[in-house]
Design a protein that fits this description.
It is a single chain. This protein folds into three domains: 65 residues, Alpha-Beta Plaits, CATH 3.30.70.20; 200 residues, no CATH class; 90 residues, no CATH class. Helix 13 packs antiparallel against helix 14. The protein contains 14 helices and 15 strands. The protein starts with a strand and ends with a helix. The longest helix has 15 residues. The chain is an alpha/beta fold. The strands form three sheets. It has a nine-stranded mixed sheet with strand order 7-6-5-8-9-13-14-4-15, with helices on both faces. A three-stranded antiparallel sheet has the order 1-3-2, with no helix packed on it. The structure holds flavin-adenine dinucleotide.
């Protein structure tokens, strides 16, 4: 019998479902493959223990960052920078100022490997590794749904132990999961956490795409969550179909974004996020530098996007300094960064219509639920 997050019936009591971030540390550590990552009733992935296989070794409990609440090492207050990639094409195709690409390029030139998020064939999101610059475009850009970690943590450990440089970028709970899984620091590991509003249900996103496919009469071939053709601050979602047609909508009006921004279908654990604060869990943090220059003048053109870069420790400083010929950066006050970016202070609060949305969504699908709750 397989039980999902069943704290009473299973001998192994994983963290409560609503607190589980789906980081997959338990899935990666299980020595007998007794844990699967399965979809729950809202379409989020979480651990499922097969009790017939489980040997009750307890390793899954030891690595769970939510059960153990591993403290984040403090290395003083982070330094904040407003920065952007000097390669204009890379910056234009990134969500913020394209700093992720700066770091990824540098690591690849050092013969290292990068783990980041890409779309899979079904337009789900997964973490995967890449070693070549030509693969970087797939990993560029934010995809606002939960990414599947798969066995990335195990793979990372393998590379680290062979002495390879590894750069891991993901949500803060994923970085926490990786660190917990590894259980120790590695000099050749660099981690980058993102400022994070929360992750949307992959199932809701897929159903939304199916609805657009019916309307446009063809399969979706690509999705850009942050098309900046109208500017960084007025970004749009852009979806391209197999027949060449294109759908585009401004984030303030578009249906899927409306639900994302109103926190209607974010993962329940995002409302209790322990990482929506300073200090940060990664060596470096990336986000949008929202609010830049609102109080103090920022005399540079920010049309194509400005990244917020937080340097959290010496390792992060080393990476940032090593790439300085590839970006433009200005030091800013940490309080400016924090005041412009809510999720450096508090987690999201679930939307009022969240439960009602899922009731309708699960019985009648995205269109019906959106009609009622995403106007
Ligand atoms: C779910 C989510 C919520 C976010 N919320 C905020 C926010 O509230 N405020 C804010 O300032 N910034 C937020 N960001 C970060 C922001 O959107 C940019 O990703 C970040 O600023 C880096 O941008 P860039 O231009 O340097 O590089 P980009 O190329 O745009 O960044 C790509 C990076 O994002 C990672 N990534 C993309 N999708 C996912 C995913 N689903 N899960 C894990 N990692 C992913 C990739 O692995 C890659 O490292 C969020 C990102 C995500 C994924």
């Amino acid at each position: 019998m397989i039980k999902l997050w069943n704290r009473k019936a299973a001998k192994i009591r994983l963290v409560k479902k609503e607190k589980c971030t789906g980081c997959a540390a338990c899935y990666n550590i299980c020595p007998v493959g007794a844990i699967k990552m399965a979809e729950d009733s809202e379409g989020f992935f979480g651990p499922l223990i097969d009790e017939q296989i489980c040997t009750k070794c307890g390793l899954c409990l030891k690595v769970c960052p939510e059960i153990n609440k591993f403290p984040v090492k403090r290395a003083g207050a982070p330094s904040a920078y407003a920065a952007w990639n000097l390669d204009q094409a890379e910056r234009a195709n990134s969500s913020s100022g394209g700093i992720f690409s700066v770091f990824a390029n540098f690591i690849l030139e050092q013969k290292g490997v990068v783990f980041a998020a890409e779309f899979d064939q079904e337009m789900g999101v997964r973490h995967a590794l890449f070693e070549k610059k030509e693969d970087l475009p797939r990993f560029r850009g934010s995809k606002y749904l939960q990414s599947k970690i798969g066995f990335s943590f195990k793979e990372i450990k393998g590379y680290l132990e062979k002495g390879k440089k590894v750069f891991f970028s993901g949500t803060p709970c994923q970085v926490a999961g990786l660190r917990a899984f590894l259980g120790k620091d590695y000099d050749n590991l660099l981690t980058c956490d993102l400022v994070c509003h929360g992750v949307c249900s992959p199932r809701v996103f897929k159903d939304y795409l199916r609805s657009l496919e019916r309307k446009y009469g063809a399969k979706v071939v690509s999705v850009f969550f942050r098309d900046k053709s109208s500017g960084w601050q007025k970004y749009r979602i852009k979806i391209i179909f197999e027949n060449g047609k294109e759908y585009s909508g401004c984030f303030t009006k578009e249906r899927f974004f409306t639900g994302f921004m109103r926190n209607i279908y974010l993962r329940p654990s995002c409302a209790m996020c322990r990482y929506a604060k300073i200090p940060r869990v990664g060596d470096i943090t990336l986000g949008d530098f929202w609010g830049i220059g609102e109080k103090e003048r920022f005399p540079y053109n920010s049309f194509e996007g400005v990244s917020l870069v937080l340097i959290n420790n010496e390792k992060g400083r080393g990476l940032f300094n090593s790439c300085q010929d590839r970006y433009f950066a200005v030091k800013r006050e940490l309080r400016e960064a924090v005041s412009g970016n809510l999720h450096l202070r508090v987690p999201m609060r679930p939307g009022r219509d969240r439960k009602r949305f899922f009731l309708v969504f699960n019985s009648k699908g995205f269109d019906c639920a959106a009609e009622k709750y995403l106007q």
